[in-house]
Structures are given as structure tokens and as C-alpha cells.
Design goal:
Keywords: DNA-binding. InterPro entries: GAF-like_dom_sf, OmpR/PhoB-type_DNA-bd. This is Transcriptional regulator. With 426 residues, the protein is an alpha+beta fold. Among the domains are: 153 residues, Beta-Lactamase, CATH 3.30.450.40; 116 residues, Orthogonal Bundle (Arc Repressor Mutant, subunit A), CATH 1.10.10.10. The longest helix has 21 residues.
Length: 426
Amino acid sequence: MATTRTAAHRGHTPATLSSVRDAHDLFVTGRVDGSYLASIPLPRLVTDSWQRSLATGVDPDRGPGEAAAATRLTELRKSHPLARALPVIRRLLVDHATDSGALVGVTAADGALLWVEGDSGAGRKAAAMNFVPGADWSERAVGTNAPGTALALDREVQIRGSEHFCRLVRPWSCTAVPIHDPLTGTPLGSLDLTGGVDVASAQTLALVRATAVAVEHFIALEYPDAGRAGAGRGPRLTMLGADRAVLRAVDGREYRLSGRHAEILALLLRHPEGVSADHLAMLLDENDLDVVTVRAEMSRLRRIVGGELIGSRPYRMLNTVESDLEDVFSALRAGDIATAMDHYSGELLPRSAAPAIARLRLELSTSLRGAVLACGDLRLLRRWLDLPEARDDRAGWQGLHDHPEVSAVMRSEARGHLVALDSDLM
């Protein structure tokens, strides 16, 4: 498997319940900063997650938003590769949870809860914090929590009571382990056990970890194509938001691309008719790039990914290549803004200074922003404003402030952001 698991946080002197709550209250109200958190006996994993949660605008007094509609949830479950592994999860983990007053949660890779099973009494109590199928338990939506933070870090995580970012979740403890496609290493989701204080134990971690491994083996042996459900069978290029673009080949191998090679592939995707070496040089650098350099880069790129993928005279893609870039554009063309946001993990090749990439980056970001602001969906607007590129989006923050469904805490945050933006212009 491509990702190496690391142990959940260990080796720290546990802080008392009251000291954790005090530190959290001081931090979320702005009376202390990250340097203070580093001085108290809390795991770095937790304090880092608190800082991410606060930075992305998670409300510590609210849980996740409304669960997905029944039809949408049915579609998510039906198409998800972990659906076929439910008998394994039930046999190894749910039966244990039912006997111990705990719940088993299975999430998709974006943090959406797909299944919640286990003790019925615990289930009724957990529903009060919206720990139900269809709810978004990603870290960006709920803050520090085991399934969401395990996905954010791609590692196993245990969160104890008051270590949660949202106060509503404090009565619970949880242990979560990410599950990966056994061929590509791509995260498929997470497996979580939620319950009382004993759930955050070394024994529980070993049990959840063993179940996750069994699920991955089941997918690899019984359903070799299941891990790639929904992702297509052809090559796929990922280049939004990440420091390095990744090309996944048909055989499952992944190539971490240099900045220049990522730029070339992005431009070839947007020019299916093909481009000459001269044209490509101009797209990559209007002044200083010569044709000889372009040809040398193309030669290196074709050696890496194979000549059967990229043709020459003109340079063009010989096979269909899926990409997160095209996923966003396709969803926008279909008017499906929620799906567009799901695929948009950040700006296109954010480190690229190539003029054509900069124009394409602006086109994508502007198109998505306009669609989000026009649709009036509070959840999508909040997700847009959580992106680094939206920090100075005054119209977006004003829209959040004026939205009829916004909470008092979120409106106050928007008001403060607007004041800060206006002060920068004075």
C-alpha cells in the first residue's frame, strides 16, 4: 500500500478534562494562540487540528450540517467500493460495538458518513449531534474528530472527549483508521469506532486497524476493481491544490510530476487538437523559453509516462485522461455546483507562473466562485470561503454576512473579516 500508517497519538502525559476545556475555550475565543497550545500537555495532532479548524471557520458550538437527502445517500452508498466490504466490517467490528455500547461509522473519502451501525441506544444519543448517515464529518466541517482528522492527515487517529473541536461532541471518544485502495493507495474513506472513554484505548486502535487491513485485503482479493469505482479505468491526472501533480497510469502506478511536466499535461488536456512546439513554448513562457527546451522536456515526459499517451507533431494526448480539472469544468457545465466543489481541492498548479496556466487557473476559480455566489447555498458558500484564495473575497464574505440562514457566530466572523478587509484598503 502506498501510504504508511503511523500510530495514533501516544507518549504524552494526558491533560486533565478541565485543563483541556480551558485551553480550548481560551483558544477559540482568541485569548491565546498556537504558542500557548504548544506549552500544555496535549498531543500536537490535536492542537494542530484545532488551529486548522479555527482557521477554516468551524463553529465550535455547532455540529455538522444537515445530512444528505435519502436519494443522494442511496446513490453514494450504491457506488462506493466499501459497500461490498460491509459484511467484513460487521463481522469484525459492528458485532463488537453492539456488545460494548459503541457505534461504527464508515465514511467516504470526503468525510461523508455512509453507514452508522452498532448499539441502538448509543445511536439515538449520537443522532443529537448529527452523527448519522449522510452528515459531513470532515475536519473542515466539524473540526477535530477522529474520522475527519484521520482523513485530513491520512493516518490513524484517536480523539478523547474534550479534545474534539466542537463542544457538542465532547461526551464522546473515537478511534478512526483510513482505508485505502490496495492498488493505488488512494484513500477510500475511514473506519471509526465512537463511544465512551474506553474507545480511545490501545486495544480499540488495534481492533479498528485490523479491521481496516482486512477490508483492504478483501477489496484486493475479491473485488480487484472495486477500489477504482467512480474513478474510471483510464489514466487520471490530479493537479488542483497540491504541491505536486500526480498522474495515475492505467496499471495503477503513480508518477509525481515536476512543475513543468504538470503544466504541459494540463495544457495538452485543454488543447485536444494538439499544439506545436512553438505554441507550447509561448503558452509556458511568453519570453524566455525556446523550442529546443520544450522538445527536451517533452522527450523526458514521454519517457516517464510512455509514448503511447502523448503524441507528437503536434503534441497531443493520444488517449482519454481524466483529471480533477476537467471534473470541475464538467460539473459546472452541468449546473452541479456541489459536485464541482467536491472536486475542487484548490487552485490549479498554484506554484506555476506559466502565463497559460495562470489564465486557466483564473478561469476555473472565477467560474466556480461565480456559480457558488449565484446559487445561494450557505454550505457551498462556507466551503468556498474556507479556501485560501477566498480570504480576500469581499463579495463572498458580504454574502455570508447577509445570508438569511447564517448563524450568529458565523455572521460575527463574517463581519470581522469584512472590517479587516476594509481596513487594508484605508
